[in-house]
Write a structure and sequence with these properties.
The protein has helices at about 5-10, 15-20, 25-40, 55-60, 65-75, 105, 110-125, 130-150; strands spanning about 45-50, 85-90, 95-100, 165. It is α/β, with parallel strands linked by helices and about 170 residues long. The relative contact order is 0.21. The mean pLDDT is about 95.
């Protein structure tokens, strides 16, 4: 069944809104937070913000979780030597955050931990604290990765740190 309210919200979320919410300065801050994080553990973090869904995904009711799983694959976050990739995905129109972690991480960190981090980020976003919300989310993810995947100087940076804006 189509959710007309959600469809209208997505249609109203323009690329301009995404660019105003995540200007280059904010993207740079997020990129540096990810780079700093990755010096402390051997995980690989990607952040993706998407303004809205369009076309078939929107009209078929694709969930933020389903979209995050698609992007996890499309961006090859799973393609790391130690199965230690992690995606933080924000669907701006829904103010929804999803964390998708590769099997190496999921074996050690349960879904409830990721869900709690997502809720904290979503609370910040409801107050229009997008930069702080993402940075605090990266820091919360970092705490988990440091605990389970301490830094290993032999591992290089396998995935780009630059946020992806769709």
């Amino acid at each position: 069944m189509m959710d007309v309210k959600r469809i209208l919200k997505h249609l109203a979320t323009t690329q301009g809104r995404v660019n105003r919410t995540f200007p280059h300065s904010v993207l740079n801050t997020i990129e540096h937070a990810i780079a700093d994080s990755e010096t402390l553990h051997c995980g690989e973090i990607r952040f993706v913000v998407e303004g809205s869904l369009d076309g078939a995904p929107l009209f078929n009711g694709q969930s933020p979780r389903e979209r995050a799983l698609d992007l996890f694959s499309e961006l090859r976050v799973w393609d790391t030597q130690h199965n230690n990739g992690l995606l933080i995905y924000l669907l701006l129109a829904d103010h929804a955050v999803e964390i998708v972690a590769d099997r190496g991480i999921n074996d050690k960190v349960d879904a409830a931990t990721w869900a709690q981090i997502c809720v904290q980020m979503e609370q910040a976003f409801r107050q229009s604290h997008f930069e702080a919300g993402v940075v605090s989310g990266v820091q919360a993810v970092t705490q988990q990765l440091v605990h389970h995947f301490p830094a290993n100087s032999q591992l290089g940076n396998e995935l780009p740190n630059r946020p992806v804006v769709l």
